[in-house]
Amino acid sequence: MPQIFQRGANLVPLKIALIIGAFATCAMGAVWMYFTPKYTKVGYQPAQPIPFSHKVHSGQLGIDCRYCHSFAETAAHSNLPSSQVCMSCHSQVQKDNPKLEPLRQAWASGKGVEWVQIHKTPDYAYFNHSVHINRGVSCVTCHGRVDQMDVVYQAKSLTMEFCVDCHRKPEMELRPLDKVTDLGWKAPTDSTELAALLGKKPEDLKLKAGAKLSPTNAQEIMGNHFKVQRGVHPPDSNCAGCHR
Amino acid sequence: MASAAHNTSEDGIVVLHCPPELAKIPLVNDNKSLAWITENVASICEEKTRRYWWIAFFFFSPIALLVPTLLAYQVGNGVGVWGENQPFGWAWDITNFVFWIGIGHAGTLISAILFLTRQKWRTSINRAAEAMTLFAVMCAGLYPGFHVGRFWKAWFLFPIPNWNAIWQNYRSPLLWDVFAVSTYFTVSVLFWYVGLIPDLATLRDRAKGTIKRVAYGIAALGWRGGNRHWQHYEMAYLILAGLSTPLVLSVHSIVSFDFATSVIPGWHTTIFPPYFVAGAIFGGFAMVLTLLLPARLFYPQLDKMMTRNHVDKMAKIILLTGSIVGYAYLMELFVALVYAGNFYEYNAFYNRATGWYAWHYYAMMTCNVIIPQFFWFKSIRHNYIWVFIICQFVNAGMWFERFVIIGTTLAQDFLPSSWGHYTPSWVEVLTFVGTFGMFITLFLLFMRFLPMITIFEVKAVTPQADPHHHPEGEHAPETLKEAH
Fold first, then answer.
1. Distance from B171 to chain A by nearest Cα, in Å?
2. Which sequence spans correspond to the domains of chain B?
3. How far is the C-alpha of B145 from the C-alpha of A60, rounded, in Å?
4. A40 lies in which domain range?
């Protein structure tokens, strides 16, 4: 009876194992890269009815976020401005600009402009917008540098990991309450300045006067101070804290 | 063989004969030759498929199709199509999980523990029992997987980095269960497959068609039966037996921790691990006999290798483990009703015996404690029909035991305001029926395509494989000679 398998067949299992191994590694890498919200969600920039530029309004003109998003620090759900708010300026400024036609129509009909929502919290996660603002979490933490965006896009992954990272280490995102809407603001890296900001002397923070700190270190020292001062203890391991 | 105790031969040598009750019972009847064993085991895979096999296959395989159908229905409609709800979070699904996983234990006990303790009678039943283990664990694994409700998220059970930044809760016995069962399945598959390799090579060498030769040839991994091959084989098999042995005890202990580490009355007891393990072996042996006794009807030649002696020994193990289980039931009752002095514990057991599910409790007691006691009688152990009937009671009894533990406790725990009834939905009932179809269909396929008896191991336990063996006529094997 002739042999079914030739000598070369001894190498076939090894070859198969190598091919499967290589394929599995590529597949895992691909899933790791492309199947996560970091890839699928970040950069989401839908076409809006009006190409409203935050860069112009917030960045160049310096209008405070809360002028338009007026409930951001008082309500569980932050709002988009009504067309009246827009028209409080645009009835005078750029009042004949054809790009603003949808706004004028909305204002006339009283129905509102139908903006496309970008930042969504899922139904099964409880999220209170005002609590975060009032503890000194800046807009930039979740929304990115909106003041530099022509048309807003999603800048952060907003996954559960994103939430939980901050809930486990909130000091990295806390800042003075009057700097919450100042998106470019960073903790001062000079120890004297930092201590003054917290109403202390450098020695109180166990720092030398005039010492230079790394931005991360400065943020951590400042954030820890605010964490204690404001009693910040977000749910970090209790599922029911957010999934109520 | 001579029945007299002493004979004097012609040359004045006194020949001492064993009294018949001390003579070794042969493991292969009728002193069959080695070639006969190979021929008759391998022929099951080689002959034309018998009509009985087709009838059984066409009866059970449509039942098996209920499983994917109803699980797809459950995934499509949500876990609510099963009848469980608060406070009955665990019901038929976990009952069936524990039932199936328990059945597997007999296979591992036969293949690993009886191997390490040199119980030679295991050789003719271990392959089939191990196959049964694998199929039972497959049936078991379905339940917790689909019980989570969102099957596609079941991978959360494994410690894989994820964008939810959550890590598995290693304090939960439910997670230990995931590792226990997946380890059990992996080791069982390896053990079974390693044991199959020499026999697959036998089938390859005997195979007629090209497809069969290639298929068995791939599966046999180039086994040529050389000295080195056997040396490696023996070592690998011994190591795997060593790995499997603790699993016989650990897997069902961990399953029992699902209950025992909670604080619910009726579950929170230290007796659970040994009692679950004994129950698993008890139910598992009943299932081994449930499969093997009818298999002997299909293939009468198996009768020579799976003898009355084998059935007798398995019946004795059922009797032993059944008595351990009975002791555990009574000890639970004693502790709860007399000894503990805990009102809720007392109440849990009082409700078991008198509550809504009392008839399950009495069914369990009858099937698991009373009926196996018939195995004290040799005449019943040696009657295949009675053995088969008693095994069916044990199978049913072990299912009732799991439902009694899960159901009565969840139905009536601390506060009457949180008590609740449970009735299985048609989906649950048919899924359970389907797992039986799946289990038996897989076993039928196994019988048809793989040697269901370990050919080379059975050969090794025949008298003629013994180096001290002398063919009939020269010296009788059971005879001792003493010179005077």
1. 14
2. 28-461
3. 55
4. 15-44
The pLDDT tens digits of the residues spanning B429-472 come to 999 999 999 999 999 999 999 999 999 999 988 888 877 766 55
The answer to whether residue A90 is domain-embedded is no
Q: Is residue A105 part of a domain?
A: no
Q: How far is CA B333 from CA A35, A111, B265, B400, B416, in A?
A: 54, 71, 12, 17, 22
Prior bond of A188 cis (ω within 30°): no
Contact B163 A157 (CB under 8 A): yes
Give A32-60 pLDDT, tens digit per residue.
888 888 888 899 999 999 999 999 999 99
Pairing of strands B479-482, B6-8: unpaired
Q: Which residue has the tokens 């234990």?
A: B105
Q: How many Å lie between the alpha carbon of A164 and the closest alpha carbon of chain B?
A: 7
Mean pLDDT on B300-327: 92
Q: What is the dihedral of CA B329, B332, B338, B343, to 10 degrees?
A: -130
Do A233 and A144 reside in the same domain of the chain? Answer: yes
For residue B246, the tally of other CB atoms under 10 A from its CB is 12
Name the residue type at position B241. A
User: CA torsion sign, B335 to B337 to B340 to B344?
Assistant: positive
What's the ipTM? 0.73
Angle at B283 between CA B277 and CA B285, to 5 degrees: 100
What's the CATH fold of domain B28-461?
A: Formate dehydrogenase/DMSO reductase fold (1.20.1630)
The pLDDT of residue B448 is 92
pLDDT of residue B15: 59
Q: Which of A78, A69, A175 is closest to A120 using CA atoms?
A: A78
> Same domain for A127 and A233?
yes
Amino acid at A199: G
Pairs of CB atoms within 8 A across A/B: 27
Asked whether residue B473 carries a pLDDT value surpassing 90, the answer given is no
> Is residue A100 domain-resident?
no
Q: Are B126 and A122 in contact (CB under 8 A)?
A: no
User: Could you tell me where the beta strands, DSSP code E, fall in B348-463?
Assistant: none
Domains identified in chain A, total number: 2
Q: Tokens 């007026």 label which residue?
A: A70
**Are residues A160 and B163, on separate chains, in Cβ contact within 8 Å?**
yes
CA angle B314, B29, B295 (to 5 degrees): 55
Would residue A77 count as lying in a domain? no
